[in-house]
Design a protein that fits this description.
The complex is a heterodimer of chains A (about 180) and B (about 130). Chain A has about 180 residues and is mainly alpha-helical. Chain B has 3 helices and no strands. In chain B, about 5% of the residues are buried. The chains are: A mainly alpha (about 180), B mainly alpha (about 130). At the A-B interface, helix 2, helix 3, helix 5, helix 6 and helix 8 of A face helix 1, helix 2 and helix 3 of B.
Chain lengths: ~180, ~130
C-alpha cells in the first residue's frame, strides 16, 4: 500500500477533505499519547490532552507554513498543550530552579549490565516522574523520539545552546538519581 | 555521543510504549467532523453576507453612476408629479440617451450572471466535497 505523505494529507484537509485527517491521527496518535502520558501520568487525562492536541492541529492547519517537517510542528503543539494542561494540575514544577540544579558530575557509571532490565526501567520511570514538566518533555523528545538538538530547539522555542545546557543538566540529575536508587536497592 | 548518553538512550528505547484506548480515533474524528461543519456553516454565512453586501454595493454604485452621468451631461427627466387629490396625472416624458439605458442594463445583467455563476460553482464544489467525505 502506498503511504500518503503528511503534506499530501494536509493539503487534502485544507481543501475540505476532513476524512484525510484520520490518516494523520492514525499515524501520530501513539507518539503524541506517549509523550503526553509520560508527563500527565493518568490515562484518561492524557487521552483528553492528546485529543486537544489534534483538535488544535486541525484548527490551525492553515498556520502550518511547511518550512519545517509536519512532525516537528505537531510536537511543538504537543509540547505547548501539555505544558498548559500541567499548569492547571499544579502538582509538578515546570522547570528546575537554579539552586536545584547542583547534582555533581555523576556519570551513569553504575553497573548497568548487572541490573535487570525491569529494575533499570523502574528506576528510569521513577526518575522521569520526579522531573519537572518541561524537562521531561525535553528529554523524551531527545531520547525517545530521536529529535536532534535543532529539532528540540524548534519544538520548544528555546535556543540550541539553551537546549544543550538543559539536556546536560537533566542528564546529570538523572544519573545522580538513578545511581542513588540503585545504591538503595 | 558519549557512552553515558548511549546508555541513557538505550534505556529510554526500552521503555514500554502506550497507546490511546480503542475508539479514540472515532471519537476524535466525530469531534473533528463537527468542527469542520461549524467552520463550513460560518464560511457559508459570511459568503451570504459578502454576496448581499456585493449586491447592495453594486446597486448603490449603479445608482450613483447613473446620477453622476445625468448630472455630468445635464440630462433631465421631464417628470411631472401626479396630483393624487384629483387623480389627474400626466405620463412622464423621459429624455435621455438610449446608450445609457443599455449600459445600465448591461451592468445589471453582468452582475446577476456573475452571482449565478458563483452560486453554481459553489454548490458544485460542495457536492464534490461531500462525495470525497463519503
Amino acid at each position: 500500500m502506498i503511504e500518503i505523505e503528511d503534506i499530501e494529507c494536509i493539503q487534502q484537509v485544507r481543501s475540505g477533505n476532513t476524512g484525510a485527517f484520520a490518516v494523520i491521527v492514525n499515524r501520530y496518535k501513539d507518539t503524541v499519547f506517549n509523550i503526553v502520558y509520560k508527563i500527565i501520568g493518568d490515562r484518561q487525562h492524557a487521552e483528553e490532552v492528546t485529543q486537544d492536541v489534534f483538535i488544535k492541529v486541525f484548527q490551525s492547519l492553515n498556520k502550518f507554513r511547511e518550512e519545517s517537517k509536519f512532525s516537528t510542528w505537531l510536537y511543538s503543539v504537543t509540547y505547548n498543550t501539555t505544558i498548559s494542561a500541567t499548569r492547571k494540575m499544579k502538582n509538578k514544577p515546570l522547570s528546575f530552579k537554579d539552586n536545584q540544579a547542583d547534582f555533581g558530575d555523576d556519570e551513569l557509571l553504575y553497573e548497568l549490565d548487572e541490573v535487570s532490565k525491569e529494575e533499570k526501567l523502574q528506576c528510569l520511570e521513577r526518575v522521569l516522574k520526579q522531573l519537572p514538566v518541561e524537562d521531561t518533555l525535553l528529554i523524551t523528545l531527545y531520547y525517545m523520539e530521536d529529535q536532534p538538538i535543532v529539532g528540540v530547539a524548534e519544538i520548544t522555542g528555546l535556543s540550541q545552546s539553551n537546549v544543550k545546557i538543559r539536556l546536560h543538566r537533566i542528564r546529570k540529575y538523572m544519573n545522580f538519581e538513578i545511581n542513588k536508587l540503585l545504591l538503595e536497592r | 555521543m558519549s557512552e553515558n548518553d548511549k546508555k541513557l538512550r538505550e534505556l529510554f528505547k526500552q521503555l514500554p510504549t502506550e497507546g490511546p484506548s480503542m475508539g479514540f480515533d472515532d471519537r476524535l474524528m466525530r469531534k473533528i467532523a463537527k468542527l469542520a461543519d461549524a467552520k463550513e456553516r460560518k464560511k457559508k454565512a459570511s459568503r451570504v453576507i459578502f454576496i448581499a453586501v456585493g449586491i447592495i454595493g453594486g446597486l448603490a454604485s449603479l445608482t450613483g453612476l447613473i446620477w453622476f452621468l445625468f448630472n455630468y451631461y445635464g440630462i433631465e427627466l421631464n417628470i411631472s408629479k401626479p396630483s393624487w387629490a384629483t387623480l389627474e396625472f400626466e405620463l412622464p416624458k423621459i429624455e435621455f440617451p438610449s446608450m445609457l439605458v443599455i449600459l445600465a442594463i448591461a451592468v445589471l445583467l453582468l452582475l446577476s450572471a456573475d452571482m449565478l455563476i458563483r452560486r453554481h460553482r459553489f454548490s458544485k464544489r460542495e457536492k464534490e466535497k461531500h462525495a470525497n467525505l463519503l
